[in-house]
């Protein structure tokens, strides 16, 4: 959008780089490219959250619940605070992930109704990116508490130190 400001237009015209029409067209293309790229990234996030992260966390939570039930069936005196606490945390995180994915999807529906490329780019920046951050936060937290064998992606440690 800064390319569309009068000072920028005059500078590019004066230097013989672009005419006003060329610069405005280029700025429009850049705004559209930005918005479409972030849209693809947001759709990918939603897909990863719903098809990989949530099922992985739920599988691990189910295993924890099974372990807790086995302990309780064996003896009511056996503990279970760890499993109960972790199940509570993971359950809350799965709710947060699902809600954030729904909110992000709703913002993408609104984005697709915008006809102006500049307005769409601003909407992506102001509405979609914060919702992407809001989805990433509980997903990152869930990764910290989900057993590695359940997590569907390499960890940062795997990526940094797993070269063979």
Description:
By secondary structure, the chain is mainly α. Helices cover about 80% and strands about 0% of the residues. It is built from five helices and no strands.
Q: Mind describing the biggest β-sheet? A: none
Number of strands: 0
Count of helix runs:
5
Determine the fraction of residues in helical runs and give it as a percent range: over 70%
Order of helices and strands: HHHHH
Describe the secondary structure blueprint for this structure.
Layout: H1 6-14, H2 20-74, H3 81-111, H4 117-145, H5 156-161
Helix pairs in contact: 2-3, 2-4, 3-4
Structure summarized in a few sentences:
This protein is mainly alpha-helical. It contains 5 helices and no strands.
Which descriptors would you attach to this protein?
164 residues, mainly alpha, 5 helices, 79% helix, elongated
